[in-house]
Write a structure and sequence with these properties.
CATH topology: Jelly Rolls
Order of helices and strands: HEEEEEEHEEHH
Low-confidence stretches: none
Helix content: 25-40%
Shape: globular
Radius of gyration: 15 Å
CATH superfamily: Jelly Rolls
Strand order of the largest sheet: 1-8-3-6
Number of strands: 8
Structural class: alpha+beta
CATH class: Mainly Beta
Length: 137
């Protein structure tokens, strides 16, 4: 989970895993469906996923996610429907973090909230930069 949360220390990561739910999914399992109203942050602990978005009658692959990458961040932060579907590319282990489970934790551990949201912001910035480069490059 190190790559997903650059600013967290090992104790922080252990607490999030303890408070979250770890699930094992098989290949082609839809972990998060486009439009789904599920307020959670998902972290790929093992395996890989693909991100697909419906365009007309087709599902278009828009990204690949590997170990230590997260998704569902827009749902987690905004509470809106998922902008795309995320599907396991093979056997995958995913950590599911909900605001309900983490809010108390984030408030009770000094500095954790700051480190957690700094990590989210850094990853979102990286994704925006990659998207910009893809369209401009």
């Amino acid at each position: 989970m190190e790559g997903a949360f650059d600013y967290l220390n090992s104790d922080d990561r252990a607490l999030l895993i303890e408070r979250g739910e770890v699930i094992d999914v098989e290949k082609d399992h839809v972990i998060l469906e486009e439009g789904e109203l599920r307020r959670a942050l998902f972290v790929t602990l093992e395996g890989a996923c693909r991100v697909e978005r419906r365009h007309g009658d087709e599902d278009m692959k828009i990204a690949e996610l590997g170990k230590d990458e997260f998704f569902g961040d827009m749902n987690f932060l905004e509470g809106l429907g998922a902008s795309a579907s995320v599907i396991a590319d093979g056997p995958t282990k995913v950590l599911i973090i909900t605001p309900e489970e983490t809010n108390t934790l984030l408030l009770s551990v000094p500095g954790l909230s700051s480190r957690f949201y700094q990590s989210l912001a850094l990853n979102l910035s990286r994704r925006l930069r990659q998207t910009t480069e893809r369209f401009m490059g």
